[in-house]
Amino acid sequence: MKKTLAVAKFGGGLLDIEGKRIINILQKIRELKDKHDIGPIVVFSAPMGITDKLIQIGNSYAQSSPLSLNPIFEVYYNLAKLYVKDGYYNKTLKVIDNLKTLTLDALNSINKRFDGNVKAKILTLGGELAMSAIMDNILKSNGFDSCRISLSDWPIVTDDSFDDASPNYELSKKRRNILMDCLEKEKIISLAGFLGVTSDGLETILGRGGSDLSAVFISCLLKSRFQTETLLFKDVPIQSADPKVIPDQLTDHITALTYNEAHKASMMGMKIVQNPAIAMARRFLQPLLIVPFDCPRKYSIIQAKPIGGDIVKCITGKFGAAILSMNDEKSRSFEDSLRIWEKRNDFLDLGAETLETGVRIRDFLFMDSDFLKKNEEKLKGFDENLKIDYGLGVVTLIGDKMKDSPGVASLAISSISGINIKRGIFAPHTSQIIIVVDEKNVNATVAAIHAKKTEMNKSTH
């Protein structure tokens, strides 16, 4: 019988620069160690706000007006002072000093562009690697037998897309013995999230929110040897809508989502799990536990098997959308370029229509209008007459059971009779109903539809 192992990720929202939750994190780690046969492996993000500040510093070096790195590392020196005990304190200071030196060396190597391997190196040296190193020493000084994995043995091997890399399972599998050796010695592993390396050892990053993917991938990598449980600790539970958007309504705790529902919800504005992490879990059929840190009983499970009877699980709202319209004949190469070369999947084909002039136009709904704004002139290389309608928002009803439940769309539309609908995609067979409105109407649309959620979920009873 396989030994049980937990892989737990603690995100930046739980790691403020003062480390207020570190003692509680240690308690969670102790509980996981007591519950399972081996481990756990603990994945850490950078402290809240650190990645954004490192990006700002990196850009300042690219513009030859460098900002100081000292405020970043003062956070780590302060955390060490507060939480590292006994003889580990001086060792921790040396580790932080070394990471600071390496980060400065990388910053000084920037030549007009803050990107590629240099960017990955700076963000992880000054972020996740520093945090996981400090947590390793905090664990040791609190009586845990813990260890870190060196960069030369890094277990997540990726492609060469330095800013948004994808893990390679077969290449990474050749390095998993490093992890297994530590686990068989009954050690806890403190692992930096977000970080990957190419096959020849250059640092990469797994995209924004990539620490989720780190934890999920490590779970999948070890799944054939251990019975792995993946826990992603978050600030709040998964709910039927954002409570900030509907302060006058009660939200429902969502106990379970299928991989498909989670993917749709994440893409459409609910901050659950990074989409590549969901895709990785789905590929290996690895269940994910989304655990609210302060209320762990309100956890949610993401898995293949549907649980519960709700037709509409959640209603999401997303700002910053846009509709791009272009010549239909020219749209195929455009779409292929985005999906294959740019690896973008955050847009939907809304179909084509023939105008009175005889010209056939195809529309695409983009979830990230900033991408279009930054690349509008480049995109006109596909069609110089393309048009973009900015200032839109997207409200989405999500639930796999909608495909078998007629009437949901009509209830949703009837609830927002006073709001101008720019476009509607009523395709419950895809587990989602999408309503495009002006950005200013997103919150009102979510609130109005959510008020009808109970009625929608009675339509099959």
Can you give a write-up of this model?
With 461 residues, the chain is an alpha/beta fold. The chain folds into 2 domains: 4-235, Acetylglutamate kinase-like (Carbamate kinase, 3-Layer(aba) Sandwich); 314-456, VC0802-like (2-Layer Sandwich), CATH 3.30.2130.10. It has 16 helices and 16 strands. The strands form 3 sheets. Strands 3-4-2-1-7-9-10-8 form an 8-stranded mixed beta sheet, with helices on both faces. A 6-stranded antiparallel beta sheet has the order 12-13-11-14-16-15. The chain has a two-stranded antiparallel sheet with strand order 5-6. The radius of gyration is 24 Å and the shape is globular. The model has no long low-confidence stretch (mean pLDDT 94).
Describe this structure in a few short sentences.
With 461 residues, this protein is an alpha/beta fold.
